[in-house]
Design goal:
Blueprint (H helix, E strand, L loop, with lengths): L1 H23 L4 H17 L6 E2 H18 L4 E6 L9 E2 L5 H10 L7 E10 L2 E9 L13 H13 L4 E7 L3 E9 L1
Parallel strand pairs: 2-4
Antiparallel strand pairs: 1-3, 4-5, 5-7, 6-7
Helix pairs in contact: 1-2, 1-3, 1-5, 2-3
């Protein structure tokens, strides 16, 4: 049930982003639609399983990040580090990482000033580490804390699926919002 609540939330945000892109940058609109199509194929075909390969989930995230990159203004610094070689025997609950990666694009960018987003996924044996950091742009910190529907549901999913094999630390300061998630797969 928690997984099904995240998918419509994610889709709504993505469609809103493509709509904005269609108004501001028509030359990349077809690329955005293709990326969304690939993402929806993943959601429809693979996310019905309890677990998916980590490689499939990372490919989904790459499509999402590529889609988001199309709409970023030049003042946004985006740093992405993803693993190149993912063992085929590693599996993860589908779409458990995306809410943490989606959040900075919804709450951490502006065209008014310089801003940065950093996203890193590393693998150490069967341990997956996710690090996400973004600037807080003079907004009320409550807008970017872990009270949003997507993040709250994801925290419940982590507690249900990885009850004693994950560590989630969310840190919010006046200047930045940071997520550190470790999952023993």
């Amino acid at each position: 049930m928690l997984k099904s609540q995240i998918n419509p939330h994610f889709l709504l945000n993505t469609l809103n982003n493509i709509y904005t892109l269609s108004l501001t940058n028509k030359s990349t609109e077809s690329k955005a639609i293709l990326k969304l199509s690939e993402m929806m194929k993943y959601i429809l075909n693979e996310c019905t399983e309890d677990k998916v390969s980590v490689q499939s989930d990372i490919s989904f995230l790459e499509n999402y990040l590529s889609l988001q990159s199309l709409r970023l203004s030049p003042n946004v610094g985006l740093t992405i580090r993803l693993p190149n070689n993912v063992p085929s025997d590693l599996f993860i609950e589908p779409m458990v990482l995306i809410p943490f990666i989606e959040n900075p694009f919804q709450h951490g960018i502006t065209t008014a000033k310089e801003c940065d987003i950093e996203i890193s996924i590393t693998l150490e044996g069967n341990r997956l580490n996710l690090f996400v950091k973004n600037d807080i742009l003079g907004r009320d910190i409550k807008q970017t804390d872990n009270s949003g529907m997507g993040l709250a549901n994801t925290q419940k999913r982590l507690e249900h699926t990885y009850p004693s094999s994950h560590l989630l630390i969310i840190d919010s300061t006046n200047d930045s919002y940071q997520v550190n998630l470790t999952i023993d797969l």
